[in-house]
Amino acid sequence: MLAPTVAASALLGLLVGSFLNVVVHRVPAGLSVVHPPSACPGCDARIAAYDNVPVLSWLVLRGRCRRCRTGISVRYPLVELGTACLFAVVAWRLGASWELPAYLWLAGVAVPLALIDLDVRRLPDAIVLPAYPVSAALLALASEGTGEWGALLRAGAGGLLLFALYLLLAVAQPGGMGFGDVKLAGVLGLHLGWLGWGTLVVGGFLGFLLGGAVGLALMAAGRAGRRSAIPFGPSMLAGALLAVLCGEALAGLYVDLLL
């Protein structure tokens, strides 16, 4: 069942990725993601359904509007492909399981949040806050299906712990971390905690590790200074997704090394 699950998840990722392009463009501007329909920014012509097929339409049109030939950014098909790959990897890790929808949801939320944070240095409440009830509901469904109600309690504790940690850091060093990061930490803690304490610890640690590595790389390249504001959301999300894929294994390896 693994191959069909991975293939179906990849296809779903392509479709979701097409919608996420709209989310990334409109949410920071406070616009509706459902109305009006997508249109060319050059001639304002509505994009037909046959020109809105993920990746394929961009390739057929050679990255240009059919009507006015205005260029269409390569970011659009890359987001679609990236989301498809992310969904496929998550499906490969979890298989056709009760928890798969919850972690596909996490992957789907991660893509626009990371891109928006890179674009405008903000993690919009319009995405982060609804993620709490949706994540809780999907994880509750996973616990109902597996009978692992302890995992749901651990998810709640993980969300509170990671939220509290980031809140403490934000209060201790004002300006060093945005409150958007704090709110996102609670969502990530839910998902990491459901999988296990080891996954929670590894996911939290990897976020800081990746964030530090990105900061050092930017400073080494002369693109940032010690006081430069660097978006931390992408590192948090990348660390959490890496932990979903291999968090318990990394935690076990660390314990083995200590012992």
UniProtKB/TrEMBL annotation:
Residues 106-216 form the Prepilin type IV endopeptidase peptidase domain. It catalyses: Typically cleaves a -Gly-|-Phe- bond to release an N-terminal, basic peptide of 5-8 residues from type IV prepilin, and then N-methylates the new N-terminal amino group, the methyl donor being S-adenosyl-L-methionine. One of its GO terms (biological process) is methylation. It is found in: Cell inner membrane; Cell membrane. One of its GO terms (molecular function) is methyltransferase activity. Coiled coil: none annotated. GO terms for cellular component: plasma membrane. This is Prepilin leader peptidase/N-methyltransferase. It comes from Vallicoccus soli. The lineage of its organism: Bacteria, Bacillati, Actinomycetota, Actinomycetes, Motilibacterales.
